Amino acid sequence: MRTIDWVPGPNTGHIRLIDQTRLPGSLVELDVHTVDQLVDAIGRLAVRGAPALGVAGALGVALAVDTLPAQEAMGQVARLRAARPTAVNLALGVDTALAAFRSGGPDAALAAALRMRDQDIAACRAMARRGVDLLARLCPGRIELTVMTICNTGALAAVEHGTALGVVEQLHAEGRLARALACETRPLLQGARLTAWELERMGARYDVLVDSAAASVLAAGGVDAVLVGADRIAANGDTANKIGTFALSLAAAHAGVPFLVVAPETTVDGGTPSGEQIKIEDRGSAEVCEFHGVRTTPEGATALNPAFDVTPARLITAIVTDRRVVRPPEQPGTPALNEEEA
Ligand code: MRU
Q: Where on this chain does substrate bind (predicted)?
């Protein structure tokens, strides 16, 4: 089953996606026939994760240009592009399909979106292989590894396979996963709900971890690596990812544990010089002050709710993409971000 895909129809097709707000309780698919529905699904995180958002953006353009008059379609596409600001893949997906439409019409837009879907599947496979090979080099002599992760970077965040969780899945497939530790990822619990659901389906050994326990668990020893995904990687290697990732990187550095970012090349944003320029989505108070519609804070309380943070390049041991392994330039004696290591 794919997280997101295109369903061809007799006249026009539509998008089908797994409604991630219903997991882990129910595995339900959502049929999306309009850009309005897609923007709503993105806003409430029914579809989420940078690679999946990229494909959603591209398929959304295909839907718009196939079903709406040109001017209306462009307005809808602009709304779609702005639906979430941090993951570069959403804008990239929209821009890629839009460029194809401008040169070749609606069929070309759909073809570009489907290419993006297929490239994501191949990229995730390549990252899984590369990540496992790198871990073997970083953890010599360790047969079975214990790894920690945050948010959900599995198949649910992409199309068919994941990024950081794709590496975990590959370790498990090779019999080399001792245990995965999934940070629960407050406030929307992508780790507890989605990563745990994927690990359960894999049959992997895992524990869910309260976010605030991660630092002391790392400091206690026994974790071989921290693996995280990315929403946008700036040209200098600074990496935006789910809120809490920066704290994990600090704890990993304190504990001397390798901290790896696993993300496709499509998440590298050469146009953003450093993390300072990355726009961080603010998701408002309600997600923090309420839980499943029940108020957990006093009436009148407000909350800060940045959905992402930026991990400085110097705290990242390596970035694994589908094409290369790079050590951010701040890592002494290692190649710069644009140099290939492997
Ligand atoms: O708010 P979300 O759930 O879309 O955040 C997702 C993340 O931060 C992921 O780690 C990132 O998009 C990489 S997914 C392979």
A: 48-50, 84, 190, 241-242
What is the C-alpha to C-alpha distance for residues 9 and 323, in angstroms, rounded to an integer?
A: 35
Distance 65 CA to ligand 1 centre (A): 27
- Residue 334 pLDDT greater than 80, yes or no: no
> Is 180's pLDDT higher than 80?
yes
Residues of the chain with CATH 3.40.50.10470: 125-341
- The domain over range 4-119 is classified in CATH as 3.30.450.20: no
Ligand 1: nearest atom to the Cα of 307: 1
231 is catalytic: yes
**pLDDT tens digits for 8-47?**
998 889 999 999 999 999 999 999 999 999 999 999 999 9
Which CATH architecture fits 125-341? 3-Layer(aba) Sandwich (3.40)
Q: 26 burial class (0-12, 13-18, 19+ CB within 10 angstroms)?
A: exposed
Alpha carbons within 13 angstroms on the beta-carbon side of residue 72 total 9
Q: Name all residues whose Cβ lies below 6 A of ligand 1.
A: 45, 48-51, 87, 151, 153, 157-158, 162-163, 190, 229-231, 241-242, 307
The residue to mutate among 44, 45, 231, having the most atoms of ligand 1 within 8 angstroms of its beta carbon, is 231
- What is the band of 341 on the pLDDT scale with cuts at 50, 70, 90? low
* Of 220, 239, 250, nearest in space to 88 by CA: 239
pTM over 0.70: yes
Binding residues for substrate: 48-50, 84, 190, 241-242
